[in-house]
Structures are given as structure tokens and as C-alpha cells.
């Protein structure tokens, strides 16, 4: 007999391992089609899975009673404090109001010339090589430089900063807390010096994010020095790995589907829509977690205080009830903008307009210079679970 928990079939699917590329999507689809709600028992606390588009959307709207006390259903105990993620209710709204001004569409548009220029420089540096590991050499370097520019820090620090952040991510994923702490200490020292410098020499807070954080008041209270450093670290953690991963999946698709690539080369005005369709088809943050604060009947699912809920972002984006032929890449899909790769509700991705800009600029500038490329023959493509990412993508092209 099938096991159940509060009426939900129990799933044992482990979403944390390494796997052949795209295998996680197959596992997610299979779970979604098994039943509307499941209970997954692969973590100590277990979690109730919301998997269909309408349920996941509705789940993001339960923010008054489902909080980010758990941010990831797969890692309910992750200790790293993050801001604004860890806040809920009014304190969250107030901090988002301060940060939003730097991530709003108009502010991001002002970054476009700089985003283009940096992207062109990086592509030109490697174009004559005829090959690169796209993920390790390009897809992480570009968002790192953009992140420094966003914070008003020198892009020339990019190489050094990348070394620390790579070391930090690598150690976190390898479960090596000692090395992670050491790498984090270098990063925090760098942020600490930048914030201290802005305290001494404030710039225009309308233009400079760190100066704005230094002068900001929430209910007449300043943000503490540690809170400002936490915000900087959060932006790094939230913005670099995600953009690198998105680029990895997108370039794999384009290398393997020459007709889709040629369509973008022939008509670059399709690129903004293609970016949305890629985000729908290849969501990397494939779930968000929440912790239930009071008992509730959610569309027939009985949840109790302390339960962990899984909001299945990728399952919603690939739900055939919402998106026709969900496994197909279709730039002209009429509801392409309704994907939820950036989540929903008040915690919806702060950096989504920046991410969109970065992806658009890379697709435009790369294909202008390197319109044809392929994956190096013999490469075995794999992905990491928890939050999808490809360790490597070796590309080659004619020079
Ligand atoms: C393709 C790239 C990206 C994807 C797919 C992505 C996805 C997401 C998702 C799904 C969430 C919601 C998590 C939840 O509800 O618990 C989120 C939140 C967030 N993202 Fe992104 N993100 C991307 C890029 C970025 C960038 C570039 C930045 C900033 C530099 C950023 C900063 C944040 C922050 C600060 C939050 C927390 C917002 C809050 O709790 O109020 N993200 N992101």
C-alpha cells in the first residue's frame, strides 16, 4: 500500500545530488504528475510539496502565515543570515523599499551601456582562443563584474573577488565549513573596507547603493554595520551563481539547437522574449521553502504550525495545465511572461531586472561576435541539485 502523510502520498525523490543534465526536471515532472500534493521524506523535517502552477502561485501569496523562517525546503536549517530574505511582514517591506530603488527597471536600464561595454571586453578577450569553458571562464566572470559595478565598487577588483567567491561557493557545496569560513572572511573584509570608506566619504545616495544603505533609516533606526555587510553578502550569494547557471543552461540549449540559435542571430529583437522562455524552461531555483506559522486548510491540504512547505517553481513553469507543450522552447508562446522563475509575492527576486539585462546583453553581444559554436565532443554534461548549476560547459568555435 502507498505510504501517506496527512493524506498525501509520500515521495522519496532526492533533489540534492549530482545527476546527468536535465534529470532533475524529469524527476520534478514525475512527482507533479503523481499527485497534486506530496509529502517528501528525504530531509529530517520532510516537506509538503505544492507542484501545480495555480497552487505554487497561491502558495507565494500565503506570506502572512508561511514565512521565510525556512527559505529552502531542501536545506531548512541553512545557517547563513540573509537580508532581506530573513525578514517578513512590515520589516521586510521597509527594507525592500530601500533596496528596490537600485533594482527597479529604470535604475537597471541606466546600467545597460556599462553592461554592454564589459560584456564586449570579456568576449573579445576570449574570441580568438576558439574555445572556452563557458561556465567557468565567462558565465561567472560577467555577473561578478556587474555585481561590483552595482555596489559602486571597482570592476578591476573582479578577478580577485571571483577567486574568493568561487572558493566560498566551492567550499559550501563541498560541505567544507572551515574553507568556506576562510573565504567568507576575505569577502567580508572587502565589504567592510568598502562600507567604512563610504561612511568617511559618502557619495550621492541616489546613485550609490552603499552610501544609501549607510544613510538609510527604518523607523528612525540606522541599519547596523553588520546588516549592511549581510545585505552585500546576500546580493553576492543570490546574484552570481544564479546568473552563471542560467547562462550555462541557455548556452547548452543554443549549442544543441542550431535552429533556435540561428533565429536569435537573424533577429536579435527576439532576444528579450527568448530570455523569458529560457527562464521558464530552465528554472534553476527550482523550489522555494516556507515555514507554516499556523494551522490551515490550503485547498484541501491540512498544514500545521512548523510544517515545511515546498513551492515547486520548476514544476509550475513546466506544468502542462498552464503551458502547452511545456518541454518545448517556444519564443512566441503567448503566456511566456507568466513564468515564475523569479518566485512570487513579496519575496519575489529583487535582482530580476538586472538578471534579465545581463542575459539579454550576453545573448546580443556574444552572437554578434561568435554566432556559431558547439559543445566539445565527448563532454558529459551534468548538473548539481539543490539549486541547479552546471559545473562545466566546454564550447568551441571556428576562428
Ligand atoms: C537568473 C537569475 C536569477 C534567478 C533565477 C533568481 C531567482 C530568485 C527566486 C526564485 C527568488 C525567490 C526566493 C523565495 O521566494 O524564497 C529570488 C530572490 C532573491 N533574489 Fe534572485 N534570482 C536571480 C538573480 C538575482 C540577482 C542578479 C540578484 C541580485 C544581484 C538577486 C537577488 C535576490 C534577492 C536579494 C532575493 C531575496 C528577495 C527577498 O527575499 O525579498 N537575484 N531570486
From TrEMBL:
InterPro entries per the UniProt record, alphabetical: Cyt_P450 (IPR001128), Cyt_P450_B (IPR002397), Cyt_P450_CS (IPR017972), Cyt_P450_sf (IPR036396)
Q: Which Pfam families match?
A: p450
**CDD domains, A to Z:** P450cam-like
Concerning SUPFAM superfamilies, the annotation shows:
Cytochrome P450
The domain of life for this entry's organism is Bacteria
The record's GO molecular-function terms, alphabetically, read:
heme binding; iron ion binding; monooxygenase activity; oxidoreductase activity, acting on paired donors, with incorporation or reduction of molecular oxygen
Report keywords, A-Z: Heme, Iron, Metal-binding, Monooxygenase, Oxidoreductase
Family listed: Belongs to the cytochrome P450 family.
Instruction: From the Swiss-Prot or TrEMBL record, give the protein name.
Output: Cytochrome P450 143
Q: What organism is this sequence from?
A: Nocardioides simplex (Arthrobacter simplex)
Amino acid at each position: 500500500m502507498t505510504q501517506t502523510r496527512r493524506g498525501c502520498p509520500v515521495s522519496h525523490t532526492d533533489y540534492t545530488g549530482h545527476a546527468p543534465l536535465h534529470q532533475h526536471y524529469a524527476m520534478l515532472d514525475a512527482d507533479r504528475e503523481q499527485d497534486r500534493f506530496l509529502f517528501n521524506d528525504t530531509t529530517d523535517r520532510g516537506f509538503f510539496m505544492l507542484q501545480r502552477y495555480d497552487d505554487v502561485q497561491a502558495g507565494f501569496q500565503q506570506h502572512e502565515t508561511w514565512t521565510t523562517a525556512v527559505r529552502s525546503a531542501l536545506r531548512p536549517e541553512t545557517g547563513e543570515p540573509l537580508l532581506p530574505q530573513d525578514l517578513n511582514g512590515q520589516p521586510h517591506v521597509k527594507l525592500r523599499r530601500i533596496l528596490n530603488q537600485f533594482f527597479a527597471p529604470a535604475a537597471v536600464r541606466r546600467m545597460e551601456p556599462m553592461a554592454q561595454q564589459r560584456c564586449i571586453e570579456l568576449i573579445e578577450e576570449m574570441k580568438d582562443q576558439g574555445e572556452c569553458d563557458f561556465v567557468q571562464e565567462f558565465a561567472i566572470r560577467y555577473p561578478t563584474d556587474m555585481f561590483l559595478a552595482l555596489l559602486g565598487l571597482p570592476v578591476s577588483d573582479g578577478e580577485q573577488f571571483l577567486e574568493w567567491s568561487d572558493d566560498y561557493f566551492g567550499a559550501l557545496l563541498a560541505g567544507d565549513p572551515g574553507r568556506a569560513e576562510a573565504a567568507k572572511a576575505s569577502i567580508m573584509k572587502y565589504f567592510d573596507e568598502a562600507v567604512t570608506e563610504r561612511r568617511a566619504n559618502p557619495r550621492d545616495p541616489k546613485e550609490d547603493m552603499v552610501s544609501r544603505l549607510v544613510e538609510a533609516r527604518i523607523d528612525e533606526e540606522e541599519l547596523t554595520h553588520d546588516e549592511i555587510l549581510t545585505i552585500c553578502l546576500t546580493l553576492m550569494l543570490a546574484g552570481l551563481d544564479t546568473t552563471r547557471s542560467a547562462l550555462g543552461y541557455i548556452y547548452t540549449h543554443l549549442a544543441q539547437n542550431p535552429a533556435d540559435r540561428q533565429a536569435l542571430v537573424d533577429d536579435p529583437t527576439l532576444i528579450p522574449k527568448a530570455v523569458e522562455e529560457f527562464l521558464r524552461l530552465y528554472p534553476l531555483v527550482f523550489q522555494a521553502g516556507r515555514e507554516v506559522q499556523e494551522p490551515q486548510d490550503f485547498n484541501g491540504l491540512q498544514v500545521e504550525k512548523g510544517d515545511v512547505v515546498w513551492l515547486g517553481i520548476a514544476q509550475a513553469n513546466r506544468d502542462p495545465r498552464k503551458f502547452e507543450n511545456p518541454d518545448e522552447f517556444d519564443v512566441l508562446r503567448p503566456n511566456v511572461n507568466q513564468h515564475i522563475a523569479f518566485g512570487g509575492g513579496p519575496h519575489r527576486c529583487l535582482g530580476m531586472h538586472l538578471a534579465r539585462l545581463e542575459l539579454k546583453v550576453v545573448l546580443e553581444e556574444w552572437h554578434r561576435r561568435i554566432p556559431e559554436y558547439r559543445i566539445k565532443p565527448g563532454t558529459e554534461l551534468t548538473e548539481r541539485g539543490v539549486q541547479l548549476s552546471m559545473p562545466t560547459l566546454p564550447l568551441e568555435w571556428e576562428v
